[in-house]
Amino acid sequence: MSKLSRVPVSIKEGVLVAFENDNIKVSGPKGVLTFKIPIGVDVKIVDHRLQVMPKEKDEDKNEVLGLTRATIANMVTGVSTGFEKKLELSGVGYRASLSGKDIILSVGFSHPVKIPEKEGIAYSVNDNIITVSGIDKTLVGNAAAKIREIKPPEPYKGKGIKYKDEVIRRKVGKAAKAIGSPTK
């Protein structure tokens, strides 16, 4: 049995959990999320906590127990506080702006790049920092990755779109390499 699945998920104040057939529905002040419970996994409420366990006692090698527990924990956190990822634009002339609910990026291409809004995701731009927020951790992470994919940071000057706390490993250019190498 997964070690992570043994840790119960505490239900925060203001969060309601309901079971419908094989689905778990978590609702809170930010919204509602549902998840289909995999076959062989049982979720129960014990002392205002969610406990994930295998349906059959003999089944110890269930790979999805930890995944199910982590997904439910993310759902509880998402509907109560939400998730956000911050992206930073670095480079001369690199800009981001909002046009309605869409993001317009100027990142060195001959044309501006338009990123349409997605359902369940909110974008905001402040001083070349793009904030992607929402209640579903997977959607927020995927949306941020798609934005970063447009112009990933390059290793020589560090220009591009990077996560706020991301550290870019810098490479030495040709001129610095030539100075350091012995000549014949």
Average pLDDT works out at: 88
The CATH fourth-level homologous superfamily of the largest domain: Ribosomal protein L6
How would a textbook summarize the main sheet? 4 strands, antiparallel
Query: What is the count of distinct domains?
Result: 2
> What is the correct CATH architecture of the largest domain?
Alpha-Beta Complex
Order of adjacent strands in the largest pleated sheet: 11-12-7-13
Cα end-to-end separation? 63 Å
Query: How many helical stretches?
Result: 3
CATH fold category name of the largest domain: Outer Surface Protein A, domain 3
Which radius of gyration do the C-alpha atoms yield? 22 Å
Given as residue ranges, the uncertain stretches (5+ residues, pLDDT < 50) are: none
Q: What structural class results from the helix and strand content?
A: alpha+beta
Strand content: 35-45%
Order of H and E elements: EEEEEEHEEEEEEHEH
CATH class of the largest domain: Alpha Beta
The geometry reads as elongated
The counted number of beta strands is 13
Estimate percent helicity. 10-25%
Spell out the key features of this protein.
Outer Surface Protein A, domain 3; 13 strands; 4-stranded antiparallel sheet; 3-stranded antiparallel sheet; 184 residues
Write up this protein.
This protein has 184 residues and is an alpha+beta fold. It has two domains: 4-80, Ribosomal protein L6 (Outer Surface Protein A, domain 3, Alpha-Beta Complex), CATH 3.90.930; 83-163, Ribosomal protein L6 (Outer Surface Protein A, domain 3), CATH 3.90.930.12. It is 21% helix and 36% strand. The strands form four sheets. The chain has a four-stranded antiparallel beta sheet, with helices on one face. A hairpin with a 2-residue loop joins strand 2 and strand 3. It is elongated. The protein starts with 8 loop residues before the first strand and ends with a helix. The model has no long low-confidence stretch (mean pLDDT 88).
